[in-house]
Each structure stands twice: as structure tokens, then as C-alpha cells.
Amino acid sequence: MQTLEDLYVYDILTEDQPDLIEKAAACLASTFIGVDVAGNWVQEPIIGYALQLPYEDFYQFTKEYIESIAHQGYCAVALDSERNVVGALVGDTKALEIIEDDIFEGTFADMNVVMRVLADIDTRFLDDYKKRYGKDPEDGEVLHLFLLGVIAEYDRHDIVQRLGDLLIKKATEEGVRLVLGEATNPKSIRLMEKFHGLTKYKDVEGNFIVHTYENNERLSNIPSTVADGIYIIVREL
Q: What is the pLDDT of residue 1?
């Protein structure tokens, strides 16, 4: 019987691996836009369900993001025996950048909706961070886990655990203070809490930082049974 170690190999991408970067981008884009995995439909509620962004546009966005931050060493992938990327967790330790202007056009214009939602919750997080620590977070202080996708047919939860373990171990060794993510659905929150200890962030007044879908005209069609909003989730290191 094959063991988990036989099925997959785990690695950190570098900027001089264009083939694997493309495969990682394809894996992530598939899971966000929507893909059948072993008879189960995997889809991110904002990008895939509500906005139905084109695969090619989101693939290109993801690829360019990985290319821009791969040198930091926070792009973890799971590879099968044929060197296909079947899971990816991608992040960076740059200070959070708030983008308020619409920067996407054409078939990808609705990505501006996503960026406005991220700007909303990230701004509230940064305001609260400054209240807590007396300053804005600097480069290298926060590991921002930005994209997670798994298309493997087997051991999907184990892949999530192994990928996160790689990045969190590196972040701990490099003195990162906090791991942060923007979780768009309860399943993501459950996985990151179970395997990596990230939980919904509460501000200094004890409130969750969340952008609720029902109050967003473009996202109100997301069923409450699927997800109610996008939450800031964190873990202190």
C-alpha cells in the first residue's frame, strides 16, 4: 500500500522554476474558478460562484503574483509522481498593500470587486493592528497566506496540513510575528483552524473583522448556507 510520502513530494518554489510556477497557477486558478475533484465540485464563492471570473484571466493574475513573490520562499506546492502540482499554498511577507482604485479592465474588471472587499477588511485590520502595537506592520512581520488550492484526489486535508507546516515553520524561523489570511468560506476557516491554529480575528473591541456578503450588491447571491462573509483569520507565532 502506498503511503502519503509515496504519493506526493513537497517543495518550496523558487523564481527560476517557471514550469512549476505555471502549474501552481493552474492548480490555484482551477480551484478558485471551479473544478471537479473526485466527483466533488470545488469552487471559491466570490471569484468562482458570485463573479464567475474567466479562468484565463485569473490564471494570469495568479501566475504574475507568484512570479513577483517567489523569491521570498513562501510558495509551497505538493507534487505527484509525474511532477504535476496537485496542491499549492502561496503567500508573502510584504506589508499589506491597500488598493482602493479600480485597476482591472475588460473581462477581468470584476476582480476590482474582490480588491475592494479585501481593501475593506485589510484596512480595518491594519487600523486595529496599529491600536494594538502602536505602529503599522512592516515587511517581514506578517505572513499573508493569500491563495490555497488542492486538486489532488487523495489525502487533500493532509496536503493542506503539509503545505501550511512548511510555510509556518519558515515564518517562525525568520521571526515573523503573525500569520494572516482572508478566509472566504467556513470550510477554509475550519481547515486552517484544525491544521494550523488560525482563528477568526477579533479587534480590540471584541468584534470579528468580516465583510458580509448579504450587504454587498455583487456578492449577495452567495447562499448563506455556503458562506456568510470573508473573515480575517490569524495566528500569532
A: 42
Euclidean distance between CA atoms 57 and 237, whole angstroms: 35
Q: Would you call 38 helix, strand, or coil by DSSP? A: coil
pLDDT in tens, 147-174: 999 999 888 999 999 999 999 999 999 9
Distance CA 160, CA 223 (A): 25
Q: Which three cell numbers stand for residue 191?
A: 481547515
For 100, other C-beta atoms within 10 Å of its C-beta total: 10
Three-class SS state of 25: helix
Q: Please report, for the chain, the start and end positions of each structural domain, with discontinuous segments joined by +.
A: 4-236
Of the candidates 18, 46, 23, 19, the residue with the CA atom closest to the CA atom of residue 33: 46
Question: DSSP label at 207?
Answer: -
The C-alpha atoms of residue 129 and residue 125 are separated, in whole angstroms, by 6
Residue 134: half-sphere exposure toward Cβ, Cα within 13 Å = 0
Confidence of residue 2 (pLDDT cuts 50, 70, 90): very low
pLDDT band at residue 5, thresholds of 50, 70 and 90?
low
Interstrand relation of 178-183 and 142-150 (parallel, antiparallel or unpaired): parallel
Structural class in CATH, domain 4-236? alpha beta
pLDDT in tens, 37-83: 989 999 999 999 999 999 999 999 999 999 999 999 999 999 999 99
CB 199, CB 233: distance < 8 Å:
yes
CA distance linking residue 117 with residue 115, whole number of Å:
5
CB 38 within 8 A of CB 153: yes
The answer to whether 63 and 22 are in contact (CB under 8 A) is yes
